[in-house]
């Protein structure tokens, strides 16, 4: 959360420098943003866009032609009869304004009510988000804005739940979870800023209650969210825990209990280690990953075969002793699998990697890596024993 606070503070500081007159700018602050101020000055010096002369001439000629077509002679008697009186015109304008306003309010209210049930991808969903933005901007202080943003973030979780239940595509679910993360982070920042300014513990308590509810809903989403949107779900859960941790640090007595714990799916899955350089919306192995792993396997030396020992010891011949078939004692069989730790690691990587198509492509490569590393370990062990 500290990085977000610093970024916002720097943005506010730069806005103050740009908005202030040049004579009133602080020299130290102006020197820090010298490059950006030069860019702003260059943009301001760009002249206004004007219409091309040929376009203006063509438009004027069209208007003249249309005006000539519409010209009709009207006698004075007809003009006097059709011209309303001044008092009547005022009344009509007022009535028209009133009726127009009522129509706009009625249409807007109906559209607003209909948009409340819209989901991402629906026609009315942008109207729903625009109304939410207006509600947030109309709040008077940080505490009220934080409360409004928390309500909107909870709506995003409900939308993600509905989309996952309806079988929506993973990209839409991931985008909704990203919106939840952004709104919850902004709400947490505003609540922390309000507590730092006023010392009021109520917003921090509300924030901690929100994180507890959100973590419960995110845990429920872990069972239904599409596999390709799981990275966005994990990021959302970790963001909620960070917000709760920041609130607990500034005010340990606000709210109930300790910091909210992450669900099991949001800890450190092995598959997340394979998505180096990826984004939160994709669970595909990064380009070139398989080639790099194959090159690593090619560079590994093959396993060296140990020569047979000719000293003739009873345990060094490499031949198993004969089994006495007349004995009543059954041979002891080791129930443990005959796999090495490296092979187990390879199996874990292939099992945790999302996507059957990627798993099939990665099988041979991981086997080569495990075999190559095993040969290298055998070589080092043999050299050290010699």
Automatic annotation (TrEMBL):
Record-annotated membrane-spanning stretches: 95-119
UniProt KW keywords: Membrane, Transmembrane, Transmembrane helix
Keyword Transmembrane (UniProt): yes
Region annotated Disordered, chain positions: 300-357
Pfam name, any one: DUF5667
Keyword Membrane included in the entry's annotation: yes
Biased composition (Basic and acidic residues): 345-357
Ranges for domain DUF5667: 118-227
InterPro entries for the chain: DUF5667
Protein name, as recorded: DUF5667 domain-containing protein
